[in-house]
Design brief:
By secondary structure, the chain is mainly beta. It has strands spanning 3-7, 17-21, 25-26, 37-42, 45-50, 56-58, 61-62, 66-69, 74-77, 83-85.
Length: 87
Amino acid sequence: MGLVTFEGASGLDRGMRALAGIAPVAIETLLPGTEGLTVEIAGSLVRLHRRSDVAARVDGHLIGPDCDLLHGDLIEVVGSGARLEVE
């Protein structure tokens, strides 16, 4: 799929993981419980996509099939307990 994973080895980024790819990337690669969510970088935008059978919230609000993300947004997968913050 053309996917690269980066993980910080020292300093403030120690343990931080990031994915980069040429197509939308499944978040479940980094965080179990987020099946059905993908992230895509489109120019200067970061867009979250969700399958129709997955309910998700961004900053406490249920979202549609797509949602543009901002730094600091909190993503929650309803019913799974999975939560992650956009860095």
